[in-house]
User: Fold this.
Amino acid sequence: MRFPLLLVVTCLLGTTLTLDNGLMRTPPMGWLAWERFRCDIDCKDDPQNCISENLFRDMADRLSEDGWRELGYVYVNIDDCWSSMNRDEHGRLQADPMRFPGGIKKLAGYMHDRGLKLGIYGDMGTHTCGGYPGTPLDKIEIDAETFAEWEVDMFKYDGCYSNATEKEKGYPLMSKALNATGRQIGYSCSWPAYQGGLPPKVNYAMLGEICNLWRNYVDIQDSWGSVLAIVDWFFGNQDVLIPAAGPGRWNDPDMLIVGDFGLSLDQSRSQMALWAIMAAPLFMSNDLRTISSSARNILQNKMVIIINQDPLGIQGRRILQEKSKIEVFWRPLSNNNSALVFFSRRTDMPYRYQTSLGKLNYTMGSYRITDAFTYKTLTLKDTTNFVVSVNPTGVVMWYVSAPSKLNTRHYFDGGHQKNNIPDVFL
Assistant:
């Protein structure tokens, strides 16, 4: 099957109804506290890292001053452990008064003054996963109204301490309640992650009607093994997941851990590239106050972000798994452009992978190639064999421009060839 036909079929599959709040027409981007800071509430002995308004203001400052906001990283998302252990006298959730003395509305104003948005966390059950007050069925309306009054911009609804029947009622009810407030609040549902992530237990057509994004699978951990497990699950089930995604409704493989402790430089590039191919939300969970320049360069890579944010909104797929442990991923983009990722599961040495665009199902023509991490460019015909060198656990990522947009000049950057097979971008 050639890709133009596949593109038409995928577009037709992507016409299911979507949540009508006008939000998140491209995957949302921002920063989320959980993976890096978890439920650290010890502000006495660890004031720089505890879950407090100071932490979120610090991250907002970094997003607004260090070039993140202009690239699309605009959400600053509170996760679990932010609230008091008790509701107030009116039955409303309230922030912990010691760690959030200014309250959530004032914190939201701090974000809005800097061109950012504030996200907050709740749970379907009697308690959150961390043991704080939940938002069960009888509290959905009052909590939605509270979040709107606080001028919150996004709400993540987790599913600890609740059963399947409550989830089936509660997730749609919260969608309705958020919309009824009159405030545009992006809605992240954890529902499918508690149901195994796959039909028949998960109805993705329904999810697309009530949620802007949803967690499908287990929480990410700060390790390469965790990233690989998520990649394997998402691409192993891609035929189910791809039709569910599109503008305003996204599969969420969880946070970016680039800049933390568990990934090498090549593995960090791999996570960023594969999340972009998946049209995944890009929520970093790291410390933006101390992030390395190499991690920042990966997360601020403009071409990878352009691929992730493509308005066509079609999730990419894995198209090849070679015996050499090289895998190839493809994503259709607007204006007949596309993205390719060559990913190595090897752990020994760089691997020289030989193929052609024709072998990767591209139709006849010449294509302008831009390497997303080096920005080097060249032109390749569909029939031209080429070699890419992929580092162990690393990627090569290409932005492939449609033939109609080419000029005919070739860019081989020195152009050395062996046996008439170009070594591209070496």
About this structure: The CA atoms of residues 77 and 119 lie 4 Å apart. Residues 1-17, 406-419 have pLDDT under 50 and may be disordered.
